[in-house]
Automatic annotation (TrEMBL):
Sorted UniProt keywords: Hydrolase
Pfam families reported for this sequence: PAD_porph
Keyword Hydrolase: yes
SUPFAM superfamilies named among the record's database cross-references: Pentein
Molecular functions per Gene Ontology: agmatine deiminase activity; protein-arginine deiminase activity
Organism of provenance: Pseudomonas proteolytica
Superkingdom: Bacteria
Source species taxonomy: Bacteria, Pseudomonadati, Pseudomonadota, Gammaproteobacteria, Pseudomonadales
UniProt-listed InterPro entries: Peptidyl-Arg-deiminase_porph
GO biological process: putrescine biosynthetic process
Record-linked PANTHER family: AGMATINE DEIMINASE-RELATED
Keyword Signal: no
Protein's name in the database: Agmatine deiminase family protein
């Protein structure tokens, strides 16, 4: 059931490292989209998705939404412990089209359904715009609607009142024309328990060609409150270098909801993996996913994978770092974080 207003103000969004009940993903099935747009085959992309799903399933349950037309391919590639849920979908970016799960001390778990418009109308979304609601209906959880055009990959939270986002996404006319920062921050405060929103520039000139217009999960990621992994590049002459510098500068000047300055840990991108003729390619190691007891890390079969794994192991002591090859998925402009969505365990722990 979709609710347009929340009658209680104590809702909040747990951090990604809080204990999960499950991870949600959506199986890729749109052959025309992948093979005409990004010059990879659907079977290659499905193999990457399956590797991610099977890696996560070692640590927690995985619920995989599958378009009814693609059930056979999902069954063939995914392990028997992955639950397949038949729902009609357009695309496969669950972080963005799926719900953002929230909790309330008395009312329990629920979810927010952002107004999903496929990153400013860049692709068909007549089915995906209702995926969050249908996912929550499947779980029997309340679904709260919002006037904000947003995607899960556009926000990071620390579970202690801090949210980080980018101006190039949420202030983009293709998302929320006429809506102010103040109005957006009020939505985050009411629905996610946010008391401090940090605005990074993102990719204001759209130099990367990223379909999302500069999601924050390609810029940085929390390791814990007050500590961030930040995307960086060794190629200081590239068009992306200035984008990375400006985002880092904004983080250096920021304080979180508790008044702390951030400790910033550089995580250099996988520049060597980018193919010269690639229209778009997600080379950001910050696009990892925090699972129960593990970090599921994008990998590309290059030496930089081990360097990134070592950085992540230091940032997340006690969690197993699991590199997963995603070279074909990366041609769609996304990584591991883009295709996953955490469902917190209730009551929230960690």
């Amino acid at each position: 059931m979709l609710h347009n207003d929340m009658q209680h103000s104590d809702w909040w969004m747990p951090a990604e490292w809080a204990r999960h009940a499950a991870t949600w993903m959506v199986w890729p099935h749109n052959q025309a989209l992948w093979e005409s747009g990004w010059r990879v085959t659907l079977s290659q992309v499905q193999a990457d998705f399956a590797r991610v799903a099977n890696a996560i399933a070692r640590f927690e349950p995985v619920k995989l939404v599958v378009d009814p037309s693609a059930l056979d391919s999902a069954k063939a590639l995914c392990g028997p412990n992955i639950e397949l849920i038949a729902l009609a979908v357009n695309d496969s970016w669950c972080r963005d089209s799926g719900p953002s799960f929230i909790g309330h001390p008395q009312l329990g778990l629920a979810g927010v359904s952002w107004r999903f418009n496929a990153w400013g109308g860049k692709s068909a979304h007549d089915l995906d715009e209702s995926l969050a609601r249908r996912t929550l209906n499947h779980l029997g959880l309340p679904c709260f609607g919002t006037p904000l055009s947003n995607e899960g990959g556009a926000i990071h939270v620390d579970g202690q009142g801090t949210l980080i986002t980018t101006e190039s996404v949420l202030l983009n006319p293709n998302r929320n024309p006429g809506m102010s920062k103040t109005e957006m921050e009020a939505i985050f405060a009411r629905w996610l328990g946010v008391t401090k929103t940090i605005w990074l520039p993102g990719d204001p000139q759209y130099v990367t060609g990223d379909m999302t217009d500069g999601h924050v999960d390609g810029v940085c990621a929390f390791a814990r409150p007050g500590v961030l992994l930040v995307d960086a590049t060794h190629d200081q002459a590239s068009v992306y270098a200035e984008v990375a510098r400006e985002n880092r500068r904004a983080l250096e000047l920021a304080t979180d909801a508790q008044g702390r300055r951030f400790e910033l840990i550089e995580l250099y991108e996988a520049s060597e993996a980018v193919e010269t003729d690639a229209e778009v390619f997600c080379a950001s190691y910050t696009n990892f996913y925090i699972a129960n007891g593990a970090i599921i890390m994008p990998a590309y079969g290059i030496a930089a994978d081990q360097v990134a794994a070592d950085v992540l192991a230091q940032a997340f002591p006690g969690r197993e770092v699991v590199p997963v090859r995603i070279n074909h998925l990366a041609h769609g402009g996304g990584g591991v974080h883009c295709i996953t969505q955490q469902q917190p365990a209730w009551p929230v722990k960690g």
